[in-house]
Specification:
With 169 residues, this protein is of the alpha/beta class. The chain has five helices and four strands; from the N terminus they run βαβαββααα. It has one domain: Metalloproteases ("zincins"), catalytic domain (Collagenase (Catalytic Domain)). Keywords: Cytoplasm, Endonuclease, Hydrolase, Metal-binding, Nuclease, Ribosome biogenesis, rRNA processing, Zinc. It is found in: Cytoplasm. Its cofactor is Zn(2+).
Length: 169
């Protein structure tokens, strides 16, 4: 049985096909779910929690960011938990939504000298951890979240995106 019930919406034709995005998302978020369950020493819920992924563009995410965060600018990823969770809590039947903007991911991947897929993988994990209550508003929270991101990425064979940087606060 899958640990997650992932629903995908592709709103921008510049994204890869939906099947490829689903495969990448299942692999990435499945690894994240396993690590979180091991980390918290709690089994994942019997019924796979539902998660919605929206693959969109800068214009759309800019509107969402302005409406929900008061920031009239595009961003790479936004997360909207269905229910508030504290880090370490296991989810109910619905996790929430993650929205990702293709153009921003492309620009950042070039700037970071990463492949698009590797950067997208990192952002999926980052958004997923936000759904579980992890945050990076304070230094200690940022360090905890970054450690988890780095461990999940390592399971997937990807390098530490924060090596040599201060925590993202």
């Amino acid at each position: 049985m899958s640990k997650l019930d992932i629903q995908i919406t592709v709103e921008n034709e510049g994204w890869r096909d939906e099947a490829a995005l689903l495969l990448l998302s299942e692999r990435t978020l499945g690894a994240a779910a396993e690590l979180l369950a091991d980390e918290e020493k709690q089994p994942f819920p019997e019924r796979a929690p539902e998660l919605s992924l929206v693959f969109t563009d800068d214009a759309s995410i800019r509107e969402i960011n302005a409406e929900w965060r008061g920031k009239d600018t595009p961003t790479n990823v936004l997360s909207f938990p269905a229910f508030p969770l504290q880090p370490g809590d296991m989810p109910g039947p619905m996790l929430g939504d993650i929205v990702i903007a293709r153009e921003t991911v492309e620009r950042e991947a070039v700037d970071l000298e990463k492949t698009f897929e590797d950067h997208l993988t990192h952002l999926l994990i980052h958004g997923f951890l936000h759904l579980f209550g992890y945050d990076h508003m304070e230094t200690d929270e940022a360090e905890r979240m970054e450690r988890l991101e780095t461990r999940i990425l390592a399971v997937l064979g990807l390098s530490d995106p924060y090596a040599g940087q201060d925590p993202i606060v």
